[in-house]
Every structure is written in C-alpha cells, then in structure tokens.
C-alpha cells in the first residue's frame, strides 16, 4: 500500500473519536460532544429564507461563486462584527470560510512551516491543535488562570521562541474551559503581538452566547496595526450544518488566504451563504441568540447545581458566563481515561482533558458540555457522574 504523507495522523491516535463513539450508546448520558441544542434551530424560518433565495436568486445561488464569498453575506458580516465586537473593517478584509474550522486551516497553511512555533492556551481547542500539528507546528503552551492566558507567561514564551508565528486564543467562554480573557489582557495581547511581530488568531465562536456578566471587547478591537486575525462562525448562533464561518483581517492576509481557499474548495456553498443573508434580513436574530443564551444559561446552572450537590469535596470547576462548556479538575486522579471508563460504567460520559493540552497534561481534568442535553438528562446525568467520581476518589 502507498504510504500516507507525514501529515496524516497515525492509526489509533484519534482518542476523541474513540471517546465519542463509546459515548454514543443510547444508554449513556453524554456530556462529551460539543453540539448546539437542535430544538432551537430555526428550521421554519430558514426554510422560508431558502424558498425566497430560490425565487429571487435561484440561478446565482446554484452557480459557481467568488472565493471570498457572496457580497451580501460579507456586508452582513461587516455590520455584524462592528455592532457586536466593535471591529471596524472594509469589505476587502472579510473572507467567508467553510465553517470557521477552515479559517484555522487556512491560517495554519499560510503561516506555519514545519518547526515554526505556535503559542496556545493550556488547555486549548483540540481541533486547532490537530490543524497546526498537520503543518508541523512546534507548540508552546501558555499558562492560564480564571482570567485567561497569563500575559507574563506569554511574553516569556515570545522571548524564548523567536520563531513564533502565531498566538492562538479562544478569548470568550473558551473551549474547553469556559474561561473568558480579561479586558486588560486583551489589550496587552494585541500590544505584544505588535511588539514581537507575530499574529494573534482570535477564534470567537461563542462570544455572542452570553447568559451572565458583561460583554468584553474583542482583542481585534485593540489591534492598532493589523496583528490580529479575527474569526467567528454562524455555527453557534444559527446552526453548524451550513458550514459558514468568517475571517476578518488585513487585506494582504485575506488575499493570500483566498488563493489557498480556492485550492481547497473554490468557494463556500453559495446557497447556504444566500440563505443565511436572507435569514438575517427577515428575522430578529438578536432575539434568537438571546433564546439560545437563556437556555444554555439554564442548563449550565443545572450542571453546576449537580456539581455542588453530588461531586466529591475538593473538586474544582469553572462557572462560565456563556458558551457551551465547563471544565472540571478532580484532585488525586492520575489517569483521566481510566476515570472516563469508570464513568461509562455509570452510564455517563465527558471528554477527558488530555487531548486539549499541547504540552504536559493536567491529570484529573475533563470537559463537560451543557448545551446539548435536555434538562432532565442533565439532572440524572450529574447524579450518575457524581456517584462515579465519589467511587473513583474513595
Ligand atoms: C473554539 C472553536 N473554534 C472553531 C470551531 C469550529 O466551528 P465551525 O467550523 O462550525 O465554525 C469550534 C467548534 O466547536 C470551536 O469550538
């Protein structure tokens, strides 16, 4: 058989795939996945938007389109980021991507040669690690606390790694921890990127799903001289199945990424772009996002209530103000995958923390998702998880 390239992960290295497969058993209450609540997908409204698109732009929507994306959608994104994130840009700064995952991939492809350093939060979004790894990145993990990436650790890492190209951050309700970066750190991050001449890739899929606390301005809003590449997505405020994300950055970067995108998929699905632009025109999207946020807030509260009621003493957890995930640390556990197996026996699942770490793993950590499971399942599942943990730490 012809050998796969070095970019292809070796057999048996998809630990998360194996976990999600194990958690898919219908008997198991799974807090492992990362799916939005499907009952809030605006199916009827989106159907109406698609019908309108077929009536008004049918041929255009079914034709090949521009690699940068449909102009109406790019204009909408510009207005959206100005209103929500105080990020002000021009049409030439906007690239529509096939999910925001593609933006991570294009940035990786554009900037990382084997051995280049990428600085990442410790822990961080595991699919971003997979992307950067496929381009040969050398990772350096930057310590976090409750206020996000620590800026003194970041500056030390920048000094120690002069071949750094990128700092990757998920500043709002981070996947996996649910933590949000403090505003002073965001300003400092933008300053450090300029000082050391590296890019920040600011990945913000969850920022609008806020159910408590106050909005914190984007890192990009502090970006004085184009060192922040900002990306987000319609996946969490609308639905992930459309695979629509975007990147806002310096025109020179957007132009290069557009060339790479052309090689990847020519352009993002035209029908989805037209339909989402139409949906925004015809619906109160803010009200829809509030409905999502309220539901996730309620589910998060049920989950933290369950932690307080059932988990062993000494367990630490984050209490996010938005997003879809919280993070648990169980002291005294050395092998989180073993812990996962014990929890499966109690018919409950999570994602062990290990794959979210670029460097040294912190044992006894795991991620819980609260957006997808219905309320009754959360109540029962947290009791089962509590019982499993009580048994494991005995
Ligand atoms: C931090 C982060 N970035 C990017 C993505 C990719 O989202 P999408 O490709 O659906 O826009 C996700 C998905 O869960 C995520 O959690």
Describe this structure as you would to a colleague.
- The protein is α/β, with parallel strands linked by helices and 394 residues long.
- The protein has two domains: 133 residues, Aspartate Aminotransferase, domain 1 (Alpha-Beta Complex), CATH 3.90.1150; 223 residues, Aspartate Aminotransferase, domain 2 (3-Layer(aba) Sandwich).
- Helices cover 43% and strands 15% of the residues.
- The protein has a seven-stranded mixed β-sheet, sandwiched between helices.
- Strand 7, helix 7 and strand 8 form a beta-alpha-beta unit.
- The protein starts with 14 loop residues before the first helix and ends with a helix.
- The model has no long low-confidence stretch (mean pLDDT 96).
- The chain binds pyridoxal-5'-phosphate.
- Pyridoxal-5'-phosphate (PLP) binds next to helix 4.
